[in-house]
Amino acid sequence: MEKEIVTLKEKLNVVGKPKRRVDAKEKVIGKALYVDDLRFPGMLYGKVKRSIYPRARIRVIDTSKAKALKGVVAVLTAKDIPGKNMVPIIVEDMPLLAEREVRYIGEALALVAASSKRTAEEALKLIKVDYEPLTPVTSPIDALKNTSPKIYGENNIVISYKLRKGDVESGFREADVIIEREYRTGYQEHVYLEPQGIIAVPGPNGSMVIYGSLQCPHYVQKAVSYVTGIGMNKVRVVQVETGGGFGGKEDVPSWVAGYTAVLAYRTNKPVKLIYDREEDILSTSKRHPAIIKYRTGAKKTGELTAVEVKYILDAGAYATLSIPVLWRGTVHAVGPYKCPNIKVDSLAVATNKVPCGAFRGFGTPQVIFAHESQMDLLAEEIGMDPIDLRLKNALEEGDQTATGQVLRESVGLKETIRRAAELSNWHRKRREYSLLKGVKRRGIGISTVFYGVSLGAAGKHLDKAASLVHVFPDGSVVVFQSLTEIGQGQRTVIAQIASESLGVKFEDVYVQQADTSIVPDSGPTVASRGTLMPGMAVIDACKRIKKRLAAVAAEMLNTTPENLVFENGEVYNVYKPGKGMLFKEVVKEAYNRRVNLGAEGWFEAPFTSFNPETGQGEPYFVYSYATHIAEVEVDVETGKVDVLKVTAVHDSGKIINPATASGQVEGGILQGLGYALMEELQEKDGYILNPNLTDYLIPTSMDAPEIEVSFVEARYSKGPFGAKGIGEPSIMPTAAAILNAVSHAIGVRVFSLPATPEKIYWTIKGSGRYT
Amino acid sequence: MKLIPPYRYLRPKNLQEAVEQLGRYGEEAKILAGGTDLIPMIRDCLITPKTMIDISFLDELRYIREEGDMIKIGALATHSEILKSPLINGKTGVLAKAEKVLGATQIRNRGTIGGNLCNASPAADTAPPLMVLNAKLKAISVEGERIIPIEEFFTGPRKNALKPNEILVEVQVSPEPEKSGSSFIKLGRRRALTLSVVSTAALIVMDGVKCRDARIALGAVAPTPVRAKETEKLLINKELNGEVISSAAEKVVEEINPITDVRGSAEYRREMSKVLTKRCLLEALESVKR
Amino acid sequence: MGEIIEFTVNGLKRRIEVEPNELLINVIRGKLGLTGTKYGCGIGECGSCTVLIDGEPALSCLTLAIEVDGREIVTIEGIAENELNHIQEAFLDQGAVQCGFCTPGMIIMAKYLLNKKRNPTEKEIKEHIKGNLCRCTGYINIIKAIKEAAEKMQNSNVKAISKEL
Q: Considering its fold, how many domains does chain B have in total?
């Protein structure tokens, strides 16, 4: 076994290569089928009636006129739900359909199924809801006041965490410098290009098949079973081509599928429900707005002595994923730095607004903006280069994180900082840009992060993955696994891992899309776990098959199994290269001997722990690291920022596919740029003012800067070929790096996101520097 | 996706027929040209016309030509056609400059100049340049034809001076004079495809070092696009330099009346009006052909 | 209520009945079953629904079906018949596809650009696709792919010409 691993490491044929994506051809010819592209005989169209008040009692929902409309097949309210009126996320607090009270604008009240989209739309208008409006609570600060109406539990707090290490007061006493600031960040909307959509198809024996645009098929399976009362064994969820997720299709499809399944159950017809863009922006989860109070103490020489953080998230009306989002944010609140004394208190607070949930980064971009601004303020205060300050405090192998976890392996952080500095010409530009005068000023800024891969201690019961691999008589291979391709290249990477593990040609491996009826529950496609977790499960299955094949091949080649090399569709004796056989010849012989060439693979995440009293423990089994350096030009008369270049260096362990990995980083950077500068969902009294792509702006091609990506591959011994995770670290450092660059350019700092031209303009104006 | 409510659809064969149809249905009818503004509004039920008169097939309204000392642009000329026109680029550069930053190719291919004006958005990109070109708009109805100076055309947000039975058929502009320079600047919240926070057009005519005529117009800073005539007065007959222009540009805030909306605050718009006016005038001065 | 319109879609003559308030995107996707054209926003802000009308890119979500009477439409399904064309190959080569939802619109835009301009600069490419939003790739590889396609097309033109000589 030892020898085999060494051989693989030395001679990787498929892993580490920029293989073409397995799903791209269908997409470039327009044949890839997304949920709205599917039709079933007799299919009805679903629509959702939504609340127009942020908080109101429901007196009556009158559906009689809607029901009477020709073409309407069903109009359903809470009482028509066959199973539980509850969407199972983490805690059970959110009804599928509001019954007595609505808690945010866009909350679902009633469902319609009709023979055409137009009839369904007409029917919605005929549903009359009699509301008794109540005073809404729309800011988390208000919600925490004693006088606030209680809209969630006893105190409007959805969840809180604490993290305690050392003694922060003595840490601040030891400090030569203390920086204390407050930061605010706004909503970020996913704007996956494909809006939410599900088709539910009732089948024989009371079964139901769900086709959908989704990240987490097993979540959807559970939710559909809950609301319909159908046993999970009769609910099959098939993920179809999905037009982007970014966290936005983690929990939301559970209720989109809930609506659709209830309609399909009651009508006994296939039902399609596709969201409008406005409906999607109004009613689906987003990145949480946050308030972060941050206090950092350090020696004149730069060593951190104490960090104290208060982190408040605006959760919206229901808990959904606020519980793990806040947990991750808490664990990452200090950043990738050594610090002996730490106190973090975090809260997610309920408001009468759309529930916030998962968005790439999952509670970290907010605190990263704070800790990376703090690091730059500290560097300035003690007269140190921001790179040097970070290198001084950056975690290395053997160091302890904020939770007291000793990092034993795969810590490429410092190399990401050094390489990013070198590739970006940091020192020269930092100096030269500081000297610029005039209307257009330039700046360069850095941000560095760590990211706990996979679900960690808070989600450990979900953190496993399964696979099923079959080798067919022609030597071709099919892989079933249950994490989803949502654009990131997951199926391609899994195909590479399977191909390398079995020693077959990449082209001979086919990876199926996720289907809950085939593969055991493998947890969600989130937390940058789509390579590591199923990758290990696929390797496990491949090893079992290979062992069986090796026994056959050894006889055929007159050697012992441990001398065999499986490579590129051939099998040969390591001592007699060039005299082997084709993989498919071995397979053929194995079939003749009735050898089972199908195998199930399984992987359980390595150990994690977390003490709820102190926050200490090993919350994640391994971390990815990243450093971004951004260069900007600021027009100081208008506040407009042009991002010129972003240099991104990532340690995500072994990179399985450099092309798809770079693609992740580039896309993450542009989302981070949007978060930093332009993406602003404006809300007043619970009303979203710009629920459309005219006024919620995401970056266009014209906004894309030059991007240079580089990988530090600090391998992780328990990951597939040494891989960790890349999806989320791609976006995490960008906004903070851009804001630090803006601050370098203009000499003053913006303390809230997004830093729109107007905000930057007033910051400059307020500073009195440019009068 | 949201669907469009039903309406009576009419496709006139020629302008005459269109005028008659509009005369018949008046208030309840809407003219469909490129549809880039109209269709989203109908889809969102912001307007619910009972009758739609589709003039998009009337090629007689799709032209850009010079007649005497006038450049005449048919109401159905698309933004792409205007942008490509050598006549527009050569003689009314300020309009070409605005067309260049208006939307993306797909929108420019469908959207028409007539539609952009009739929609009467305070932020309409073509309005400030046409205002500094002193454009005249020709409207036709069953009662005859009428010329409306562009300054009188916009009457409020999304409101124009056309009577219910009138169709806008032509935009007439004089070429930019000799020894003149012009510019258009748009400030948005990203680098492309964004509605203006503020837009400014300027045209100056020089006589040696002296300014013989100056015209300034702004968008998105008042209920309608506006001319800044008091500011213009501070430039006319002056020797133009950076200082004169900067101090004149300060005046522009007295001529605008911006609001706060999702795109920016009134205060920011005031500040940016000054900055953009200054920059626009400087660019215009720079571009004067000497 | 409906009216009969005649138009060409991907080279085939079609004669269908449409309602005057029916959008082109719904006719293409629904009545013609050409689902490669995507609905992303419905108000002309994302470019996912781009098709060619008489050779010019237009948004099928802002176009009434009735308005294309007598015109010629090309959708993503009409870009290449059996084999992939240079643009599609380049999109695969350069990793310009992730979730794929913006891809049809991007490819339509690329085809139009390369039809009228053989060797566009990076700036021209960026300018040209600014009406097509992509949330996955950061546009970097899409721009590279269009450049590569332009080069390939030039090379194959050169080859074709030298063969003739």
A: 3
Q: In what order do the strands lie in the sheet containing C12-18?
A: C12-18, C3-9, C72-74, C50-53, C56-59
Q: What is the pLDDT of residues C75-130, one digit of tens each?
A: 999 998 667 899 999 999 999 999 999 999 999 999 999 999 999 999 999 999 99
Asked whether residue B201 falls in the same domain as residue B165, the answer is no
Measured between beta carbons, which residues in chain A are less than 8 angstroms from residue B272? 638, 761
Report whether pLDDT(B257) > 60: yes
Mark yes or no for CB contact A193/C43 under 8 Å. Answer: no
- Say what the pLDDT of residue C82 is: 65
Mean pLDDT confidence for B212-225: 97
- Which class is domain A394-400+415-452+621-771? alpha beta
CB pairs < 8 Å spanning A and C: 164
Would you state the pLDDT for residue A7?
Answer: 44
Residues of C in contact with A29 (CB under 8 A): 36, 76-77, 79-80, 84, 88
Min CA distance, C128 vs chain B (Å)? 7
For residue B44, the enclosing domain spans 8-54
Q: Does domain A2-32+464-604 have CATH number 1.10.260.40?
A: no
What residues make up the domain containing C66?
A: 3-78
Q: Answer for the pair B131, B222: CB distance below 8 angstroms, yes or no.
A: no
Please determine, for residue B91, whether its predicted confidence score (pLDDT) is greater than 80: yes
The answer to whether the CB atoms of B272 and A638 lie below 8 A apart is yes
In a domain, B13, yes or no: yes
Residues of C (38-97) whose Cβ lies below 8 Å from A: 38-43, 45-46, 48, 75-77, 79-80, 84, 88, 91-93, 95, 97
**For an interface test with B, which of C60, C62, C66 has the most B Cβ atoms less than 10 Å from its Cβ?**
C62
Contacts of residue B138, defined as CB under 8 A and 6 or more positions apart, other chains included, come to B145, B146, B147, B148, B168, B169, B170, B171, B172
The residue from B173, B200, B225 where one domain ends is: B173
Arithmetic mean of pLDDT, B118-141: 97
Q: Would you say residue B2 lies in a domain?
A: no
Quick check: helix, strand or coil at residue B261? strand
For B6, B15, B34, B125, B288, the CA distances from B204, given in Å and listed in that order, are 49, 37, 33, 19, 8
B contacts of A761 (beta carbons < 8 Å): 268, 271-272
What pLDDT score was predicted for residue A9?
A: 42
Q: Of C39, C59, C78, which residue constitutes the final position of a domain? A: C78
Give me the interface pTM, i.e. the ipTM: 0.96
Alpha helices in A577-620 (DSSP H): 583-592
Q: What is the DSSP letter of C70?
A: T
Residues of chain A with pLDDT under 50: 1-9
Q: Indicate whether B119 and B193 sit together in one domain.
A: no
Q: How far from chain centre, in Å, is Cα B55?
A: 20
Please check whether residue A237 is in contact with residue A249, taking contact to mean a CB–CB distance below 8 angstroms: no
Confidence tier at C154 by pLDDT (50, 70, 90) = confident
Task: Note the pTM of the prediction, 2 decimals.
Answer: 0.97
Select from C64, C66, C131 the Cβ nearest to the Cβ of B106. Answer: C131
**Closest to B63 measured CA to CA, from B52, B72, B55, B53:** B72
* CATH number, domain with residue B87: 3.30.465.10
CB A207 within 8 A of CB A237: no
Q: For residue range B24-77, what is the model confidence (pLDDT) as tens digits?
A: 998 999 999 999 999 999 988 889 999 999 999 999 999 999 999 999 999 999
* Predicted pLDDT of residue A2: 41
- Residue A642 near chain B (CB below 8 Å): yes
Contacting residues of B for A637, CB less than 8 Å apart: 275
| pLDDT recorded at residue A4 | 45
